[in-house]
Each structure stands twice: as C-alpha cells, then as structure tokens.
C-alpha cells in the first residue's frame, strides 16, 4: 500500500446482485455508490452514482452474464470518473461475508486458506457464502496485488456465551454438524451499539444496549459493555423477529407438520418460511409504509400483521432487558427502525415500568443523525441510530491494511 492510498472499495455480493461503495478513509466520504442487479438475466441493470464529481446517477440496462462481467462493468464506471480499480489511491477492497462460523472473530485479510474456510462454511450459509466467494474471487482476479479483506456478519456475535449460543439439542449431533446460534447483521449491531454509546456521551465499555436492526431482515441484539451477549438470529437468519418475508421464531414441529400433513417438500417449507412468511405472509405486503397506509384505511389484515410484528419485538426487548440486567439504551436502526415512528412508539408503549418511554415530538423528527426519542425523565434512553454497514466495513478494512 502506498502512502497516498486512502480509498477502500466495499463490495456486497449477493446471488444475483453486487452493491458497492467507494470511500475515502481520510473523512469517510463516499466517492461513488452503485448496484448491479439481476446478474445472469437479460435485463441486468447497473446504477452508478459518481458522488465525487457531483455527477448524476447513470443507469444502464442489458445482459450482464455473471459476477465477473458485473465487476468489470463497475470497474469501467469507476474508471470513467477517474476512480478506477487500477488507481494507486485504492488501498484495499473490503468484502461483506455473511457467515464466518466460529473461526473468524475479526476482519481478515483474504488468502487461499481464508477462501477455503469460507467455502467450508457453505453448508451453514448455502444462500450467501457462495455469492460472497464469487465476489471475492472475481475481485482478486481483477486486482491480484491488492489486499482484500473479509468482514463477517457473524463476527460481532462470537462473544456470545455458550449458554446463549447453544441450542438445547443433543450435543454430539449439534457439534457434528456445527449447529449453533451464530447471529447475523453483526457489522450493523457493532456499529450501532458503538454510536449509541457515543450519543450518550459514554465509552462503549460503560453501556448496555439493546439494538433493534429492523430492515427487511430484522434482528435484535443484547450488547453489554461493547460485547454481544445474545442475538435473535441463529444458525441461519430465519430465527427471531418477524421480518419482511421470514417467520422468525416458530415451533420447529410446524415444519414436520407441513411435510407430514400438508405434503410439502423440504424446499417448499424453506421457501414458505424464508420468502412467504413474516409481514408478506401475514398481509401480502412487506413494506412498512404500505402496511401503515393500509392500517390508516382500516385494513384488518395489515393491522394484525403490524400487531404480531410489534408483539414479537416487545418480547425480545423484555427478554434482553432480563439478559442484560441493566439497560442504558434501546436503539432502533435500519429501514423500518430509522423511518417508521409508529413502530418505535408501539414497540415501547406500556414499558414505563421498565424505564422506557417515547416522546411523541422527538419520535416524529426525521433526520439522518443519531437522536434520542425518549423524554428527559426516562431511565432508559430510546434512540434512533442510523446504521452504516459500508462505512463500518470500510473502516475495519482500512484499519487492518494500514496497521
Ligand atoms: P434490507 O434488509 O433490505 O437492507 P432496509 O434496512 O433497507 O432493508 O429496510 C427496508 C425496509 O424499510 C422496507 O421494506 C420498508 O419496510 C422499510 N422502510 C423504508 N423506508 C421507510 C419509511 N419511510 N417508513 C417506513 N418504513 C420504511
């Protein structure tokens, strides 16, 4: 790395998409952001916004065959703005990797052994790790000399005590198949819990925070003095809160029933619980804006979906209050948590005995900044703390390669 290399490219590779951001680590500024979607289809789309030059968003449609073609197209867009992958100012590429198992507790510079280990985890993350691997291999082929760093969604949760991470099933069976609770969204939980401490004017080691990451996927975590002690997602991102399309917690016997009585296949059940459940299964919509609009029009199904979503959230707030013993703050983040004031108000309604309350005026403020929504008198702070997973990945990547 040269002394002038201060840029980090963050790549988030999904099965048919690549999201990217180029950041300048001197001030965390975004130089370019973009997305390639529907990779492998006739109607692939690349949307690129060159923030550094103040240029408009550029969109191109047309077939992009695979991840290699996608990254080449991204590289060409970046080059057009003088921000190409061959620039000496590029210090590293940071990759979001969903599953790091127990081995990866920290961001890790990628070499062949690391790739092998990520590959070894494919059976526990069959949807995500293969796509992440493709992104890494493609980026390495384009810039073999450049440090590439894997930042794992599971890493922040590796501090969970054994009694929180282990399922109460036969130990030999669990260990033979690496079945345990790993948790996800860790980059976000780490970033938001730290920012919440900052908002309270304290060091992360001094505060206990419940983080509610409510996006399309959703998870809660209990963070004690900067370390995760429990989280709602488990072996896979299916466990825990009600999500946009996932059921969250469910009696596992429902799956036997669906197979034995309803005649569904393994794959049918998988699709049902991951893609056709949660808010979308309950009322047909997974966008909270649409659900709120329907509720305002008196739609009963939307109301019930909302109530089920809130009920689950409350149960986790209660559970994590008990786990932490003392809670200093509850922080809402991600698409729903940052934008849906009615969700925040409903989730904390009636919890005054637990020291929680929401100030209606503060809750109604719209802002991209971390902010308190609790009244002055509340014993436990309630806050909205916008997440920034790309910045966190870039910072962790840069810290590693510039050390
Ligand atoms: P992902 O899990 O895909 O990263 P996000 O964190 O971007 O998701 O959250 C997406 C969700 O946020 C949407 O499905 C929608 O329910 C919700 N959302 C976004 N904007 C708003 C808004 N203004 N009001 C209410 N909900 C919103």
Provide the fold topology.
Layout: E1 7-13, E2 18-24, E3 29-37, E4 45-49, E5 58-61, H1 67-80, E6 90-97, E7 108-109, H2 112-120, H3 129-142, E8 148-152, H4 162-165, H5 171-176, H6 186-199, E9 208-214, E10 218-224, E11 227-231, H7 253-260, H8 266-275, H9 278-283, H10 288-296, H11 300-324, E12 329-333, H12 334-339, H13 341-348, H14 360-364, E13 371-372, E14 381-384, H15 389-401
Helix pairs in contact: 1-3, 10-11, 11-13
The chain binds adenosine-5'-diphosphate.
The site of adenosine-5'-diphosphate (ADP) has 13 residues, from helix 10 and helix 12.
Overview of this structure, please?
- The structure is a single chain.
- By secondary structure, the chain is α/β, with parallel strands linked by helices.
- It has two domains: 7-152, Nucleotidyltransferase, domain 5 (2-Layer Sandwich); 201-389, Nucleotidyltransferase, domain 5.
- 37% of the residues lie in helices and 19% in strands.
- The chain has 15 helices and 14 strands.
- The strands form two sheets. Strands 5-4-3-2-1-6-8-7 form an eight-stranded mixed β-sheet, with helices on both faces. A six-stranded mixed β-sheet has the order 11-10-9-12-14-13, sandwiched between helices.
- α1 packs across α3 (129-142) and α11 crosses α13 (341-348).
- The radius of gyration is 21 Å and the shape is globular.
- The mean pLDDT is 95.
- The structure holds adenosine-5'-diphosphate.
- The site of adenosine-5'-diphosphate (ADP) has 13 residues, from α10 and α12.
Q: What is the H-and-E element order?
A: EEEEEHEEHHEHHHEEEHHHHHEHHHEEH
Distance between the termini: 11 Å
Rg for CA atoms: 21 Å
| Strand neighbour order, sheet with most strands | 5-4-3-2-1-6-8-7
């Amino acid at each position: 790395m040269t002394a002038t290399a201060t840029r980090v490219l963050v790549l988030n590779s999904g099965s048919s998409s690549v999201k990217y951001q180029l950041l300048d680590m001197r001030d965390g500024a975004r130089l370019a952001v973009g997305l390639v979607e529907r990779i492998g289809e006739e109607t692939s789309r690349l949307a690129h916004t060159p923030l550094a030059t103040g240029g408009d968003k550029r969109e191109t449609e047309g077939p992009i065959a695979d991840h290699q073609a996608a990254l080449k197209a991204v590289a060409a867009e970046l080059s057009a703005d003088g921000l190409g992958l061959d620039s000496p100012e590029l210090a590293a590429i940071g990759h979001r990797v969903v599953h790091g198992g127990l081995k990866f507790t920290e961001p890790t510079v990628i070499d062949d052994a690391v790739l092998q280990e990520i590959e070894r985890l494919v059976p526990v993350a069959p949807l995500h790790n293969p796509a992440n691997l493709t992104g890494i291999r493609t980026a390495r082929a384009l810039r073999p000399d450049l440090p590439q760093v894997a930042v794992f969604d599971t890493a922040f949760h590796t501090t969970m005590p054994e009694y929180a991470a282990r399922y109460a099933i036969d130990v030999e069976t669990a260990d033979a198949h690496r079945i345990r609770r790993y948790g996800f969204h860790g980059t976000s939980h780490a970033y938001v819990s730290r920012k919440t401490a900052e908002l309270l004017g304290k060091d992360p080691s001094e505060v206990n925070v419940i983080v509610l990451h409510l996006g399309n996927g959703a998870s809660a975590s209990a963070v004690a003095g900067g370390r995760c002690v429990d989280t709602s997602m488990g072996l896979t991102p299916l466990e825990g809160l009600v999500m946009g399309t996932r059921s969250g917690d469910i009696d596992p016997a429902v799956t036997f029933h669906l197979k034995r009585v309803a005649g569904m296949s393994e794959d049918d059940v998988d699709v049902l619980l991951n893609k056709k459940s949660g808010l979308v299964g309950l009322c047909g919509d997974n966008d909270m804006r649409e659900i709120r609009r329907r509720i305002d029009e008196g739609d009963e199904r939307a109301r019930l979906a909302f109530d089920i979503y809130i009920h689950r959230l409350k149960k986790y707030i209660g559970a994590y209050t008990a786990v932490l013993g003392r809670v200093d703050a509850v922080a809402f983040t991600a698409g729903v948590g940052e934008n849906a004031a009615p969700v925040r108000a409903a989730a904390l309604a009636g919890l005054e005995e637990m020291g929680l309350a929401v100030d209606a005026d503060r809750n109604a403020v719209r802002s991209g900044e971390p902010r308190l929504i609790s009244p002055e008198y509340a014993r436990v702070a309630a806050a909205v703390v916008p997440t920034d997973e790309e910045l966190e990945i870039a910072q962790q990547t840069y810290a590693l390669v510039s050390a």
